[in-house]
User: Which sequence fits this backbone?
């Protein structure tokens, strides 16, 4: 069964397909394969709302089984910001370096640097909606370290580690990350999905 992924990001498609494995009867395919090229609106005030909004957009228009995901970094000392606005925290140009610098500046006088990445994946299959959440707890460092990963990785140190996501071996990050935790929950659900459906 094909599941259309509401994203234009091929790295995300690859990551989901890898975690799902080759034996699965589900195949994750990019929305471009059914001719969807537009940017899907993400206007909800919550991460879960955005994931559902993107999945419903595809389902309502194209009547396909589909998945969508949304991720945010929640920093306690900033009242949960940037949260659902993580990609455009420092402006609409979605610049990762500017986002990092703004976080470091806004946290400079704060004692509480605890934070978490939260991913929600929304699945719509045979008209039913389901969401899967993955969270990794950690803290924001006072400076950047490492060149790996993307986004806020150089300033996020997961609990139980003394390296940032930017310094960490990619394979380790992918084992413990918010996205992989949400994906594993999705995979468990799909691999146990009744085959008469
Ligand atoms: P998206 O929902 O995957 O587009 O993510 C929203 C924003 O969160 C991105 O622009 C990144 O800045 C940030 N982000 C998402 N996942 C990660 C991650 O694994 N590491 C660092 N930053 C991330």
Assistant:
């Amino acid at each position: 069964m094909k599941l259309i992924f509401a994203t234009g990001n091929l790295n995300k498609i690859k990551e989901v397909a890898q975690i799902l494995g080759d034996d699965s009867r589900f195949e994750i395919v990019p929305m471009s394969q059914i001719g969807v090229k537009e940017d899907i609106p993400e206007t909800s005030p919550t991460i879960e709302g955005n994931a559902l909004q993107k999945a419903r957009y595809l389902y309502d228009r194209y009547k396909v089984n589909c998945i969508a995901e949304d991720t945010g970094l929640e920093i306690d000392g900033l009242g949960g910001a940037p949260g659902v606005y993580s990609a455009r925290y420092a402006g609409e140009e979605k610049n990762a370096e500017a986002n990092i610098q703004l976080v470091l500046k806004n946290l400079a006088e704060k004692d509480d640097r605890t934070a978490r990445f939260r991913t929600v994946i929304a699945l719509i299959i045979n008209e039913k909606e389901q969401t899967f959440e993955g969270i990794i707890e950690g803290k924001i460092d006072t400076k950047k370290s490492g060149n790996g990963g993307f986004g806020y990785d150089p300033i996020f140190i997961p609990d139980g580690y003394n390296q940032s996501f930017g310094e960490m071996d990619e394979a380790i990050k992918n084992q413990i990350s918010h996205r992989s935790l949400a994906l594993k929950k999705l995979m468990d659900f799909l691999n146990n999905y009744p085959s008469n459906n």
